[in-house]
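The instructor's notes for this session suggest beginning with a concrete chain rather than abstract definitions. Hand out the sequence below and ask the class to guess, before any prediction is shown, which regions might be ordered.
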Amino acid sequence: MDTTVDLDSFASLVERPDDAARRAAEERWAQLDKPRGGLGQLEELGSWLASVQGGTEVRALSAAKVLLFAGDHGIAELGVSRLAAAGGTAERVHAVLDGSATVARLARRYGAGLRVVDLSVDAGAEEFGPEVSEHRIRRGSGRIDLENALTEQEAARAFAVGMAIADEEADLGTDLVLLGDLGVGSTTVAAVLVGALCGTDAAAVCGRGSGIDDRVWMVKCATIRDALRRARPVLGDQLALLAATGGADFAAITGFLLQAAVRKLPVVLDGVVSAACALMAQRISFRAPEWWRAAQLTGEPALAKAYDRLTLNPLHDQQVTMGEGVGAVLALPLLQAASDALAEQAFVPALPTAPRPPAKLPSAAELLGRL
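After discussion, reveal the predicted structure:
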């Protein structure tokens, strides 16, 4: 099936957040009974939420969604990660789906939904079920130091899938997306894209990823260098760049970020993968970053460069390096606090319909009477 994506249309379709709503939020902060600036950065964060929501009243966040894009990368076979190249991504997807992964536990804790989208995991199509793999583009991807990750047609299809998912989430009423990724070798791919888009050499963007040692770091750095040579000739064509040195998950995240901005759906970026895709999206629409917030720094040099180019400041610095959307989920309580403090009607969690009565405990007198 032929897929054509009009990237130029995003320049006009993406609007800026509502400045009038931001000003109204700032006025409301001034009216609250507190010292001026007494809530610190929560005030700026609340004003941003007001601007992306639009309207006359701020709505407390009540339908946040953790969205994880999953894909394997051929570059992982070079051993650039401490995680297993064969089966490592599939295991992580299963852990999220069965609820044992940290991101799944935190999502439950903070009341966020959770969705995994398999774009190119190197596993059987039936491994995760249709809800996860219905949008799969291919199984695995090419080794980007030697060959393209995928064809340009596959890149266009993946980009369109990301757009469709943004529409689905907006139509479902999701009011905030916490964006993450699942994929062994993904930090290497992200470093290549950031290096290409920022015009830096391999050493300036090569990080420790999954916790690699010096020897593996040198292998990773050489791999990024070779992939950068392949990226530079197609730097002016975003889809060609995603096909040459990205992957189906990267193309889908880029499409998602742009369409989410079109649909006025705010997004929190987790780490270097989402940041690399955000840089790609910024190339296509310069207004799009106004709809995003950066969750954290992870120590990855490529992430710091990307956020500097995007002019995004991280919401926290808990030194979380595991990816999988964990850093983005940890930012959710801050955003909830900002929206609750500013909203006309704060969000009240629903109570269980039939709470169990507390167990009758013996009184001190009863206990003493037994002695």
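Then share the key points. Strands lie at 64-71, 113-120, 176-182, 267-269, 292-294. The chain has two domains: 18-58, 62-342.
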